[in-house]
User: Which sequence fits this backbone?
């Protein structure tokens, strides 16, 4: 069987994520620090997780918006398609958080990343995080 039985990652951002300052047409949310990367299946440079084997995986993310009078929306993408999203849009709150989590049935080589659909993310103090792990292989 391909892939390791132990698969887990957790990554953070230490700077804000503002699309106007990026040449990023895909709107992928990039992370700059890995806290855990058991099996090395999360690629920091692309900020994409690649499943090493067929199985059930758990993913979660937490993001914080930068400005009041702003809305943020983040989607967890599997193979280029949105699976779940999180939204924060209180116009009177500056530092509002959005988070979500999901279990996914994944095939070997399936890819997962976060996409910023709208808004700007707070990155300082590592407010924005993305984590995942293999629950069990199939």
Assistant:
């Amino acid at each position: 069987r391909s892939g390791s039985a132990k698969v887990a990652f957790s990554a953070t951002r230490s700077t804000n994520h503002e699309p106007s300052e990026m040449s990023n047409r895909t709107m992928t949310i990039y992370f700059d620090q890995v806290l855990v990367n058991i099996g090395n299946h999360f690629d920091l440079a692309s900020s994409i997780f690649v499943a090493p084997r067929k199985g059930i995986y758990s993913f979660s993310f937490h993001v914080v918006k930068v400005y009041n009078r702003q809305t943020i929306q983040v989607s967890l993408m599997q193979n280029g398609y949105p699976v779940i999203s999180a939204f924060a849009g209180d116009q009177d709150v500056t530092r509002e958080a959005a988070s979500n989590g999901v279990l996914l049935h994944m095939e070997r080589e399936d890819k997962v990343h976060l996409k910023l659909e709208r808004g700007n993310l707070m990155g300082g103090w590592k407010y924005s995080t993305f984590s995942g792990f293999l629950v069990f292989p199939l």
Notes: DSSP finds no helices and ten strands in the chain.
